[in-house]
Amino acid sequence: MSAMAELVRRRGLIGYLVLSSLKTANKSTYLGYVWWVLDPLLMMLVYVLLVRVVFERGGPDYAFFVLLGILPWKCFKVSTEHSITSLIGAERLIKQLVFPKAVLPIAAILASFVHLGVGLLVLLPVMMLLFKVPLTPALLFLPIVGLVQFCLTLGIALFLAALNLFLRDVQNITKFLLQIWFYASPGIYPLTSVPETIRPLYMLNPFATIFTAYRDAVMYGNLPELNYFLFTSFMSLLALIAGIAFFHKCEPSFAKIL
User: Residue 145 in contact with residue 213, Cβ under 8 Å?
Assistant: First the structure.
C-alpha cells in the first residue's frame, strides 16, 4: 500500500515520462504517428493472407476478427518488452536520483495503452462500417476489459522488470515465451476451434477470456461469459498485487546490481 501511495504522489513524473515516450516514438520516421495505426493493419494483412488466402480458412469477417486480437496483444507484448528493459536503460538515473523506480516500467506500459486506445478509436469505427457491425450497448464494456488487461500487464511487467536485473536472460526468454503465449491464445483462431474437452483448462489462459471479451463487445454485441471474466479479473488483480510487492521488495537492491 505504501508503494502504491508513493506512485500516486509521483503521477506528475509518470505523466512526463509517458509524454516523452509518445513524442520520441517513431520520431525519426517519415510516417511518424501514422505507424500507431499502420502497424496493426499490416500485421492483420499478414494473417489474413496466411489464413484466408493460403489455408482458405476463416470467414468473411476474419480481418476484423484477427484485428481485435492483434491490437490488445501488441499492447501487451510491447508493454512487457519495454518494461523489462526500462530499468537497465535508466541505469545512470537510478544510481543518481532517489525516486520510485516503478515509474519507469509503468510509464512504458501507459504509453503502450495510449497506442491501444488510439488504435481502437481510429480503426474500430472504420472496420465496423466496412463489415456492417451495428453499435450496441456492449461497447460500453470495452473500458472494463481494457482495465483487466492493464492490471494483468502491469503485474507481469513489474515482476519481469525486477527479475531481469538479477537474471539478464529474462528479456531474451520472454520474447520466445510471448510468441508461444500468443499462439496458445485465440488471437488468430476462434475459441470454438479448441476441443470442448480441454476448453475449461484452456480458459485458464487470461488472454482466452480477454480476446473473446473484446470480440464479444465489438463484433457480436454480447457481454463476456461472467464466470470466466470474473476469474480472469481476479487473477489479473492477484498478478498486479504480486508484481508490485515483488518489485517493491527488490527495489533497494537495484542501484547495487546495475
Answer: yes
Domain boundaries, the chain: 2-257
- Amino acid sitting at position 78: V
- Per the model's pLDDT, the better-predicted residue between 164 and 59 turns out to be 164
Per the listing, cell 509503468 goes with 106
Does this model's pTM top 0.85? My answer is: yes
| Per-residue buried b or exposed e for 30-56, using 16+ beta carbons within 10 Å of the residue's own CB | eeeeeebbebbbebbeebbeebbeeee
CA 130 to chain centre: 26
Task: Label residue 223 left, alpha or beta by phi (over 0 means left) and psi (-120 to 50 means alpha).
Answer: beta
Rounded to 10 degrees, what is the CA torsion of 141, 61, 66, 149? Answer: 0
pLDDT, residue 257, reads: 77
**What is the per-residue pLDDT across 93-132, written as a single tens digit (0 to 9) for each?**
787 777 788 889 999 999 889 888 888 888 899 999 999 9
